[in-house]
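The passage that follows is intended for readers who have already worked through the single-chain material. We present the inputs for a multi-component assembly, then the predicted structure in tokenized form, and finally a short commentary. You are encouraged to pause after the input and sketch how you expect the pieces to fit together before reading on.
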Amino acid sequence: MTIHSKAELMTEEELFCLRDLVSEHFGISIKGDKRLTLHMKLSHRLDILGLHSYRQYYDYIVSEPSREELFLLASHLSNKETYFFREKPQLEVFSELLKDMKTARQRRQERDLRILSLASSTGEEAYSLNILIQENGLFAWDWDVRITGMDIDRNAINTAREAVYSKNSFRTLNGDQRLLDRYFTVEEDRYILRRSLMRNVDFLHGNIMDPESFKAIEGADVIFCRNVLIYMSDNAVSKLAVNLYNCLSDTGYLFIGSSESLIQKTNLFIPEYRNGVIVYRKNIIK
Amino acid sequence: MKLCGLDWWSRQQAIAELVRRPKEEYIGHLEEGLRNHDDASIRNVSMEVYCALGPAALTSLRTLICDDDPEVRLFTVNILGWIGDSGALDILSSSIRDPDINVRIASAESLGRIGDPRALEVLESALDDDAWVAMAAINALGNIGGEGSLDILYRCLGREGYQKITINALEKAGNRNSIQHLASCFADAGLRETALGAIVRVGEKEGVRLKPEYFANLVPMLVEMADSRDPETRKNALTALCWSRDITGLSYLIEAVRDSELQEHAIEGLLNVGRKAVCAIVDEMKVSTGSHRPMLAKLLAMMGENKALLQFAADQDPEVRSEVAIALGSVDLKRARTALEQMLSDPCVEVRHAARKGLSVFDKDKGLKLK
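Having made your guess, compare it with the prediction:
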């Protein structure tokens, strides 16, 4: 089948409407003429809703009070690719920081640790962090460690809560069978996370661009918000930085993707170099 | 020159005020300023004022182009290019034969900036000058563009040592007819990547699907370049493969669906290849994991291969199942209906909705026939 014109599937005006919608609400930046890609990702929504054009779909989204379809739109356009122990050098720095955090907390006679995994998708990052904490052994006794994942995609959240994965989620494990044996039960081609690792991890449905989504979370000790900024405009990154700033504790650490940067995009964070990895700290304005 | 001591912003305002006054009041100072060897800032300000004067400066510049000092002549031709007025064509047409090579190079560049096709003949004659002048002329031809420029540039592609800069010029000025000329450079391994980049840029700029015939002989080389270590070359090769509709590059096209930067071209390429791509897409869906699979499912549906999707009714990915459910609505098999009924109790709400939709289409179109 040859598509003679992209306009047969989606007009330029429809592209601009949808592009502006996801940019405004989610900071997702769609660059260039991606009409075929959008059609691939969204056409089933038109089928399900019985709509005949993307203009109708746009009108449906903006007129729907529950905003469920708006979230569905964003979830279909966002990148869900993730896997366990992604970007290992950053995770090694995270493990190192755990020692500092424990010392600091003991000094203040506090025994809790709050970690946030934003754009958590199907939960691989959140559980990777929990595995690292378990491996580290520093928070074994009488500590309240909580890891919260947040994503716009309800399906991804459901998958994260089930914590059953395929081989694709372990693509960088390089056959580290020890970790798999220790933390997963393998049934045919399914890798089931041990339930003990799920108790202190929860997942919230939310939009990282919306301050309301962070209402229940304050004073996170560590925030992971990786491989999100690459899909955003500078303006959206600045907005997101405010949410991250307000949510992170004054002594906390922010990790973004290794190919991403906040330098020259916001003055709310200061980069700190640790073993070749950039970690961001809050720029405390006194 | 009081203007020299001012910051950029204040200077621009002062220059704007100055050029509103009769130029006879200050033109002598400008000419002297341009001849000033001792203070570069005075020269720079003079040049800024000349540019702000625009075509009104041409009379004075005609005098300066005859100056004995080659530097003054060089600044003059630069100013003429920045002003960009076609009234300077005759001045630059003479200065391109100046005894000083830098003046000749700058004259060619300025003719390119002005962009008037009447300069083509002069620029073509400069191609026989020193190599640097010839390269400046080729670059200028790229800036001027149009059929006349392109004809000269196509001939330049055959000139030893000038091919790369000509390809760059064609990247700027080329149209769809330039593709076959650029493709001829593929024979030279040292030019291949530059030529490919130019082909892709021209194709994207033209905003039309380039004919697959353009790439017919290039596919083996494109496949080779799709394995390049250079990401830009890889991207260009895949983009051209997508246009080629050739099944040799099928595995690369399918792989490119995973890459958000290449996705759009890859989808278009696979749709262009059409049914010949079906087996490879089905195989990829069977063995791979990843977020590109729902798009592959949609591609199969768009190719009318809805029956092939039946085997993915119990896929692990709910987005694939949703696509399958929609597609099964138009599959004339009882097994399709059974699969849809099972999908009504899918754990994912979107799949259930898709199954309900699929069933309603199925029953409307074929239900009676099956009963």
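Commentary: The radius of gyration of chain A is 20 Å. Chain A has nine helices and ten strands. How closely did your sketch match?
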